[in-house]
Amino acid sequence: MSELAPTRRTVLTGAAALAAVGFVPGAAAAQGPGPKTRPTATITVLGTTDLHGNVMNWDYFANRDYRDSAGNDIGLAKVSTLVSAIREERGAANVMLIDAGDTIQGTPLAYYYARIDPITDGASVHPMAEAMNIIGYDAAALGNHEFNYGIDTLRVFQEQLDFPLLGANAVDAATKLPAFPPYFIKSFTMPDGKVVKVGVLGLTNPGIAIWDRANVEGRMEFPGLVEQAKIFVPRLRKAGADIVVVSAHSGADTSSSYGDALPYPENAATLVAQQVPGIDAILVGHAHKEIVERWVTNEATGEQVLLTEPLKWGMRLSVIDLDLTLVEKKWRLRGVSAQVLNSNTVDEDPAVVDALQKQHDIVVDYVNSVIGTSAQAMSASRAVVEDVAAIDFVNYVQADAVKQALAGTADAALPVVSIAAPFNRDAAIPEGEVTVRDVAGLYVFDNTLVAVKVTGAQIRDYLEFSAVYYKQVSGTGPFAMKDVTNAVTASAPNGTPDYNYDIVAGLDAPLTYDVDIAQPAGSRIANLRYAGAPIVDTQEFAMAINNYRQSGGGNFPHVKTAPVLYNRQVEIRQLIIDWVTANGVVDATVFASKDWQLVSGGQPVTIS
Known about the structure:
Layout: H1 14-21, E1 40-48, E2 58-59, E3 64-65, H2 76-90, E4 95-99, H3 108-116, H4 127-135, E5 139-141, H5 151-160, E6 165-166, E7 171-172, E8 183-189, E9 195-203, H6 208-211, H7 213-216, E10 220-221, H8 225-238, E11 243-248, H9 269-275, E12 281-284, E13 290-297, E14 304-310, E15 316-327, E16 330-342, H10 350-367, E17 370-374, E18 378-379, H11 389-406, E19 416-420, E20 428-429, E21 432-435, H12 436-442, E22 448-455, H13 456-466, H14 481-484, E23 503-506, E24 511-516, E25 525-530, E26 533-534, E27 540-546, H15 547-550, E28 564-571, H16 572-583, E29 585-586, H17 588-591, E30 596-600, E31 603-604
Parallel strand pairs: 1-4, 4-5, 5-6, 9-11, 11-12, 12-14, 17-29, 19-27, 24-30
Antiparallel strand pairs: 1-15, 2-3, 7-10, 8-9, 13-14, 15-16, 17-21, 18-20, 19-23, 22-27, 22-28, 24-25, 25-26, 30-31
């Protein structure tokens, strides 16, 4: 059984917790106060998003209390303490709690109850459902990752919730009607006994149609947020909603990672605020950013719409204050404001911890179970600047699985190559005993394996696109890593994520290349060879790739439209775990080789 790390703070609740967080009651009504002689009241909407399976303040891959360089804490147990404090301060009858999606994927805890002891078997309640029910959520929007484990798992999760799971733009493919409740209305009683109704419209991400195509194609469709909001905001108002809040699993900074693959943008929260009249506030999700308050002017009405986003994983809690005043015997909205509370100033709620402790312990034991041994230590720490065995291992397992799957088919003779990215530079396989946790650290996403047919010219294009990860740098160094990469850092939050730097390797013969960082992006791949010979543009390969990339994630060239040779919906992380379990020994001499290098003007670059 596991033992949670000692808490770092005393438990804070009520006014003490809010004071520690810096909570300002009724902060800054933004749309102008009404006359002071009129009665006033406040309805508070609390919001979380992108919880990604985090209940405890725990890092399953590091096997310790969660910590990061910014001092953040995570998890619903922390959020619960903040929520309880707000309810105590404001009165529970005046508070509403909602979420903006991506709930059931992201940690070994979430994975375990989707795949190892799946909730579809009927024996277990999903830990996120259990925790959210204890805390008392009123509604939650669907996130794109809700669909990762298939619609059947999602439906069971939905049944286990004590509150509605909303998705106005998740529609049945046949009827085009919402497959989930589109909205929820909660009534609040004002001091004079009158009722004010707050409607919550749930919107999810159109990218689901791409990212989880195998799970949803032919069953559900995902039209644009703006398009569906234009339909359902008026319906909410007609149904009696005095105030409309949108819970949108869609970022505020308009963009799409899938390019023009869909007519609807991935991050459309700002567009919803601009183009759809009748919205008072939007709880934003998906982008994993912290937005305290952002104001967007609606183009039709000129009204200001509030956007707020509470980062991710339960690190923050958004507090939206809806300030009302009584005008001519009717309660009217006179101002909206928001602030975010930080989970790192309070302790975990013992009620949530106690309820989830058994499931947490089971998963800690699972991820720490020994499944094999490694003949050498392998680390991903330098995977973005040199060919390392840890990434070679991922590519080897992926390519080997594809080769076995193609055996006996018309494509069996195709040479197999594979792509992998350094998802987690902290990942390391130790020499000696290897646990599930060690292997899972190499592959922290729940992607599945796909194989597509590509040409030599397409591989070159793919590698050129990947090499955008690097800055244009002359000279051979030595350089620090940060001086040669465009990686995301605290000072460069809009850089290229490590997961968008793909490395290509061969299986039965080496695929080798140089990345010349002295050259401009688009002209960096040199000496591209397979089995020692220059790759011919028309030469064909089977490429092992993850479903996120193949379906358009990252907008890499060619692979989305390439012929699919293999797609059995097998999770890559589980493939690696199964490979270690079956083989017993991980020996880097079997699969590791130096297949690519950074050069400048053709000369190898030294990275300190």
